[in-house]
Amino acid sequence: MQAVHVLGIGQTAVGEHWEQSLKELAGEAAFAALADSGVDRVDGVFVGNMLSPSLNRQMHLGALVADWIGLRGVEAVKIESACGSGGSAIRAAVLAIASGAMRTALVVGVEKMTDSPGHETTAALATAADADEEADHGVSFVALNAFLMRRYMHAYGWRHEDFAPFSINAHANAVANPWARLREAVSAEDYARARMIADPINLLDASPIGDGAAAVVLAADGTQDRRSDPVRITASAVATDSIAIHSRADPLWLAAAERSSAAAFAQAGKKPADIDVFELHDAFSIMAVLSLEACGYCEKGQGPRLGLDGRITVGGSVPIATRGGLKARGHPVGATGVYQMVESVQQLRGEAGPTQVQDARVAMAQNIGGSGATVVTHILERD
Amino acid sequence: MQAVHVLGIGQTAVGEHWEQSLKELAGEAAFAALADSGVDRVDGVFVGNMLSPSLNRQMHLGALVADWIGLRGVEAVKIESACGSGGSAIRAAVLAIASGAMRTALVVGVEKMTDSPGHETTAALATAADADEEADHGVSFVALNAFLMRRYMHAYGWRHEDFAPFSINAHANAVANPWARLREAVSAEDYARARMIADPINLLDASPIGDGAAAVVLAADGTQDRRSDPVRITASAVATDSIAIHSRADPLWLAAAERSSAAAFAQAGKKPADIDVFELHDAFSIMAVLSLEACGYCEKGQGPRLGLDGRITVGGSVPIATRGGLKARGHPVGATGVYQMVESVQQLRGEAGPTQVQDARVAMAQNIGGSGATVVTHILERD
Questions:
Q1: Is the pTM of this model over 0.95?
Q2: Cβ A53–B58 below 8 Å, yes or no?
Q3: Is B255 in Cβ contact with A60 (below 8 Å)?
């Protein structure tokens, strides 16, 4: 596949942006990415979003965002794969550039969730699950993940407190990230006494929703000399699984994450140990654990060990959630995959401040839709 | 751009399919297209859909459809650009194949609209318009098109009856199409006395909604010898415009249709007169008129003349809606763009029965999202 470079990145803080409309949020991130890239016009706009049809009464975000940012007329489209929408939008843009049909593309992930009543948001998030088989029976998305965590603890003998390092690490890293929603450190004691949400998932196992937008400007080979610090996308892979968890051969194995990461490793000629930064999809502690296992960082059932041994911290062998992750940067669902790429690029450029991973040269960003039904993996390398 | 071929087509009848779920509908069309293609496994699944988040409480259709049709694991994604979703999904698949990342792809457009109360469907369709600027002020999607038609009649001096040939032609062609929703001929008298919906749009100016799915199997160059009658996609282009009609320089000119078709003509090395079949987006009579003008088939303001002179019929110089069009085949919104391509391929293969355009060698399918905000144009040629 033809090489694709990241020329620019932009993001809004994740939070409650009641003063900004959906398109204004998207615009803020897009303008930041365009300014950062030095490109003023792109050949295509790819918008990742999940919930605007439900929560904002607005579809058709491709044309809407393109027009709002002054690119009326340009090719544009909206991509959705639940919480994997941002990653899927990047994937679509990578393919468009690799095809030769475009030289440059802007990807914007945007989500505006906090204007809506909580029960509406919960119902909307459940549309990531299988309506016929899961959601219509009253299972919320958090409940599905609670099933997984409970089952995992039962199968492998882990205690709830063994998951604490994932939350603690994410929060510690978010403190230094000005765009993060929860910039506050938490302790093992905080984790132990956090309010229960859906047993065994407590408040510190679950990522917070939020309003936010992130954007990247991608460009074809030959354009990278516009920057002194270009980052190259050396792998892009998507795999799927059954949406309904009970249809999977093993509910505790993210087959799509395994397949997607294996394809990405093969494309980039890398193995798990070659990744300096891994921005994974820690929507819940259990998702971080299952992702690490599926991507080959430990044996099946041993994910919590990586946290307990300190290997997931910025100084560890597999640093994750280095800017706070979904857990503490926040999870504006359709935008998350683009935030992950923005943060990976920050690390590769050496712009990650106090949570900079030393001499980071290879980063992997993995965005998950549903509880593992769509998994999008990108590997990025400093040129 | 690398050539992409259409190896298979499939569709369900458009109608009220209360006995089939969303994924079952998608599967019926997908299985038909796969069987027609001779391909049993594809590298990617692209689903075009607009309303499932609103009307079916289901997002994440890429993984859902892939799993349902037995392709669990394969790359999959959902694409949305309002009523242009089907065409946009085809565009995404064309780019994926052209990139070299995939050899084969399945595109499925699916929509299930008739299980919902009418007011919910009307509200959901309004999300194709600009929420802040149009829909939140109470303007339905039909009303927006009524503004356009009224303004057009005023600006150019046409009477309502001058639009009758568009409805009459579409219905006449649908009679012979077993997959069409309204297989009944209508007369000028029927048109004149049809019930008013949103003045001046009456029942015979407006396309009916419906449940339905259509699918195509696309493949890279070198695969076309699988069929004796391969069809090649020789142009693929998308352009956008402001969603809000009042933001456009001229509300009566579909700038995105002009731009999109001009790009497509240039890619294929064709001019308007070279097109033997034009499957256009006749969601309303006025949209057919504006599309013909923007694509260069007549002077601005003269679209109705093409109908009055009999040029839009199967035997005319620019046959449109040859299988019934949106008006009479029906408009399952996110699926429509794929139906248009299926029908274009039927014409190029000589499978269009009583409405076969003689010696059709070049077809153009144009799918519109919103009232002209996203326009996707494909040109297909018989090899």
A1: yes
A2: no
A3: no
